[in-house]
Design goal:
Chain B: Keywords: Cell membrane, Membrane, Transmembrane, Transmembrane helix, Transport. The complex is a heterodimer of chains A (288) and B (267). Chain A is an alpha/beta fold. In chain A, 41% of the residues lie in helices and 22% in strands. Chain B is mostly helical. Chain B is globular, with a radius of gyration of 23 Å. Classes of the chains: A alpha/beta (288), B mainly alpha (267). Chains A and B meet through helix 2, strand 6 and helix 3 of A and helix 8 and helix 10 of B.
Amino acid sequence: MAEIEFNQVGFVYQPGTPFEATALTDINLTIESNTYTAIVGHTGSGKSTLIQLLDGLLKPTSGSVTVGKITVGHDSSNQQLAKLRQHVGIVFQFPESQLFEETVLKDIAFGPKNLGKTNEEAEQLANQAMRLVGLDASLASHSPFELSGGQMRRVAIAGVLAMQPQILILDEPTAGLDPRGQREIMELFAQLQQQQQLTVILVTHQMEDAAKYADQVVVMNHGAVVKTGAPREIFIEPKWLQANHLMVPKTTAFAQALQHHGFKFDPFPMTVAELTAQVSQQLESGAQ
Amino acid sequence: MFSKVLFGRYVPTNSFIHRLDPRAKLVLSFYFIVIIFFANSWLAYAFLGLFTLVVILSTKVKLGFFWDGIKPLIWIILFTVILQMLFSNGGHIYWHWGIFSITQFGLINGGYIFCRFLLIICMSTVLTLTTPPLLIADAVESLMKPLIKIKVPVYEIALMLSIALRFVPTLLDETQKIMNAQRARGVDFSTGSIWKRIKSVIPILIPLFISAFNRADELATAMEARGYRGGEGRSKFRILQWHGKDTAACLVMVVVTIVLVGVRLYS
């Protein structure tokens, strides 16, 4: 089943004013359920607008967005948008800036409570979410503002996960974290996607993450989708990537440099693990 | 929703009014607001209205912007005008019920107040649409200079003013971001009882205050690291210059005043 469908979606900010700005034009996009999609594109290419449309925070000015059984067009009511939001969880950039409650537990339980859960149910979901993101249970009664940056980020992510969304949108979830924190958070999302059959949509500038985790990569440029496909199809053409202001993942770049010196790759490696396996195999066979 | 906020929005069209010295614009628009209260006849208001219209047209800014400036205040204007009409006495009585009455003077006073509001809003909108906020802050600093003699902390006030103006759009963006994040967590700002809606502001206000504190802390550190020691003994990058056209603008205002006084004396 196609979980998410963009049907000729266009979006214009402040239409009819001198500040009118077209953010998206004619987006057609299908995202299957239980897949991991990465949206890449340089700054200002419309990625953030796209995910706000998905979560019902914005209404398309033309076309329609379908999520599951709900379709949202430019004349949809706020109630329909609110219904959409129940299925979609979104982790914004620097999500720690949305924390406000007195304790960590209360803040995480805030989302579920808004969805109509009782206090006990919400706290149970909050405890569960804390375990999921690897926060120590002893932090539950602390104020979120006493925590370190990385821990605050985890609390914010837990607050979204506690709402048990079927679709999880991540807008650069690792921005500003140290390398270890980045890896842990990315692994967490990959695990969640596998275990809980989530549909994950990741907006990122880290091509390595897109290559490593995504099933599908969507490339955006100037408010339009210029290419969709498996990471292998997208990242194999460095010239095309550069023309669209994107970086080539380091793994791919290194593999291509090796190719010039006689190495042959099939399939083309996307992750460090794939690359090492193929290189060591070729070195061994070459040594014989 | 903040796309409609007009405050601090500058529309560059490089008209004559745009190129005036911000000090001249600031003083003249205040002065104009004061002399509006000297007008006491329809003739005087017609004259001031015409003058305002000429100024508005010479800014070359679309008229829609001025309407956007008036729109949010329309209820306050109507409320004041209606109160004035219902509670003013004198002249011919057209209608009355209990303490309420609509009289000739009441109608006239209501009309005057309506004109005053309109003129004041239009003139102040001219000021904000044609002057970048930072230049307004510079103008305030420059005009307050004499107050240093009576120990008013002019540099500090000017610094706070320019930082505040600079961060208005940033804070609006931030508010929008936090609102979106909380809406994504199921907060509904548009439905429910008044009490529920007031409560739904808390998840916006607290993060906003905290981010403002953090921002202030970071800004202060960054300023100190760049050698800021207070206003005393600093030089200025933007230097305001008074030109002939600014004097001309003042002269125009003098003429307006003379006409206004004339209308008041001889009608």
